[in-house]
Amino acid sequence: MVSSAALPFDIRPLLGDAIYLAPSSGHFERDQLMTSLAQAEALISLLSVQVDEQLLAAAPRLRVVANVAVGFDNVDIQAATRRGVAVVNTPDVLTEATADFAFALLLATARRLVEGDRTVRSRQWTGWDPGQLLGADVFGTTLGIIGMGRIGRAVARRASGFAMEILYLNHHRTPPVEASHGEGPRSVGWEELLLKSDYLSLHCPLTPETQHIIDRQALRAMKKSAILVNTARGGCVDEPALAWALAAGEIAGAGLDVFANEPAVHPDLLTSDHVVLAPHAGSATTSARKRMVEICANAVRSVLDGHRPPTLLNPEVF
Ligand code: GLV
User: Fold this and answer.
1) What is the pLDDT of residues 80-118, one digit of tens each?
2) Ligand 1 pocket residue status of 149, Cβ below 6 Å
3) Strand, helix or coil at 116?
4) Topology of 95-277 in CATH?
5) 283 lines ligand 1 (CB under 6 A)
6) Class of domain 2-91+285-317
7) So where are the chain's domains?
8) What residue owns the CA closest to ligand 1's atom 1?
């Protein structure tokens, strides 16, 4: 159950009478959501909703949680499984949109696009100046990717068009999983990734293992000219450490789409000229968001009809 205003597309045609659209004009307050869930059999949840033991306990009739996101760190899958509640997410349909956005952030940060926009808009631009807004090269540099899953690989495909050397790591502080030779993305260890990457882009899920994977120590180990890009989850980065690293010149910049306590942003990141900020918009294309909502609505329909939905995360319940 979601507020009708919270979803950009009308799901009623997909769900018929099965859904109750709560008469809210925006995001639910948690208390309001828990009350509304007392009779609900399905919840279409946004990633800003913590679907935890407490919330599930308030929804005794619940059969399915459809999370409008590929990431599902906001859902306690084990608690849902214990209660026999199916959980689905929305993989694949947002892969290319999110990879485009990661690359947009990388380019915008490297080439100081937002600063340039501000300069022109504020009428401070006085004409072409050979020393103005000098940025960093992207073509021919080295991109490090943490999390070489669907989105990580899609970013790597874009980077190869920029003749970037691609290094990647799937698990924190583990040795390379395979020997790579020749062209193409190369699996490396943690130290090599930090040492060699000109750009480091995060595409891992938020788990206890990846929580603060980018901490003060990691930032210190990166190149002083490096740029961090995060379109994964804010919790993967220790934000105070990042603010410190940017101010101290330990890294050169950051392109951030996600934050630890959204919509709050660390105050020092808000004022830093070395950061490009986006409002968790990685998958925000009309077609990707429409397909995400459709997956969720169809999954709800399937579960309520007794069928297994394609993107089920806890097959044990079926
Ligand atoms: C967005 O962050 C998602 O996980 O889909």
Assistant:
1) 999 999 999 999 999 999 999 999 999 999 999 999 999
2) no
3) helix
4) Rossmann fold (3.40.50)
5) yes
6) alpha beta
7) 2-91+285-317, 95-277
8) 69
